[in-house]
Amino acid sequence: MLFNSLNFAIFLPIVFVLYWFATRGNLKFQNILLLVSSYFFYACWDWRFMFLLIFSTLLDYYTGIKIYKATSNLKKTFWLWLSVGINLGFLGVFKYYNFFANSFADGLSLLGFKTNLMTLQIMLPVGISFYTFHGLSYVIDIYKNRIKPERNFIDYSLFVSFFPLLVAGPIERATHLLPQISKKRRFDYVKAVDGLRQILWGLFKKIVIADGCAEFANTIFNNSTEYSGSTLVIGALFFTFQIYCDFSGYSDIALGTARLFGIELLRNFAFPYFSRDIAEFWRRWHISLSSWFKDYLYIPLGGSKGGMWMRIRNVFIIFLVSGFWHGANWTFIVWGFLNALFIMPSVIFNTNRNNLQIVAQGKYLPTVKEFLAIYLTFSLTVFAWIFFRANNLGHAFSYISQIFSSSLFTIPKFPGMSKAVIIAALTVVFIIVEWLGREQEYALANLGAKWYKPLRWTMYYIIIFAIYKFSGAEQQFIYFQF
Questions:
Q1: Catalytic-role residue among 134, 176, 286, 326
Q2: How far is CA 297 from CA 81, 131, 137, 339, in A?
Q3: Based on the domain organization, do 162 and 195 belong to the same domain?
């Protein structure tokens, strides 16, 4: 069931009405309803993978209690690694087995040995990377004595399976979400309206900008040998806005939906394309994943406490693992490697925390220095996205080599240019709105709050009309494949 589907437009109001009215404010009934709704939501993708979600939930619920009750460090460690091993084992089989098998076979063929290793013809379960990380953070936090295990199985299951975040995050922490699940919730009209506003903005980002850009990004990337360097630059720019609006649009819808039920999820994006360096970009892009790797991998590896060599090593590990988390393809690993290279100046010169506040705070325009820093950071990000989007490394390198050719200085040409100009113009409008709202949780949060009411509602109706006008066949969100 897609957020941008008619099915979800029917599903959400039904759950909302039952949640606030049929349960009569009873917390136990509310949580049961949300859990059943979440399982139904997930089963709509493929009910056959329900067993994996439920098994993972049971595993971490049980091992969490065993870790807490263990009378020795040896027993605690055993139960921790049992959970980690099984969770990563499932993830490895479904997501990475074929990659390792094919890479091993390719390596042997380079040495002159031909082999035909068996590969698995199975689908990747939707959301497995996300709910696996939910469970891992939970058991690790218990092991580190940060939290106590949740004894209420319904509450814990809801923490893992809450439908707004189930298939593409944000990656929640037990310390943040479980207390909200266990606490009585009352309807808040202001929060509900804010949730609807964020859902509206998320749908605009997905349907109008992301899906609009996707049409031309796919055309150009899938036929890159036929186009000039200038056209390939346009294709890379279209993908750059596609992936941001697709994923941040999903996150906006997820956060807004959760707010309708009185629950606040972790913020996942904070206007990353306005960043002044790569370190700032990664504090603002996919925040829940970046902070997860920081807390559960970077810091345990030693973080920044060691010498410069250790800091550099740990940064490369984090980014390579992050790239591999996104997909079983060398293109993602190279994408992670490039981001590690790009962030190195900040690490070496200890400037990675220079830009903690949003750019040009309290001002309409950035300074020339800030603008140039944003432009450079954005350009490096666009370059790295080429590897993220390419089918394989050969495709990525040929795409880049074609860009840096004499055809870079020709006029771009590709099918559907007139529609592309419209999408580009809408993207510019989108960037302006994001810039104006960059100091808020999301762009539309307070935009027009002081306007005359009819004018503010006119803006909302224009957004709704644009969503209706550009809606077509339901398009999956990019991060569902991760």
A1: 326
A2: 15, 17, 11, 17
A3: no
